[in-house]
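Action item from last week, closing it out:
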Amino acid sequence: MQNFPQVFACFTLLWKFDVPPKVKLFVWRAALKVATRDNLCKRGIHVLNDDFRCAFCFQVDESINHILFVCPRVSYVW
């Protein structure tokens, strides 16, 4: 991971927040573990036809930020 010092600093700060442990775990897993197309690419896993667009709205590249906060189709779930 190229940005390890920055990532480590962010997660160190996250663990200090006074929020329930399940919230901390959700943020950590969402940031690092969710298999979005950009995370798959970072892990060296090729996606079909190298199409990184969101599988729900097909408008922009799929990232955890887009899936959780921006995607108009997924926002109805939240």
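Closing note: DSSP finds four helices and no strands in the chain.
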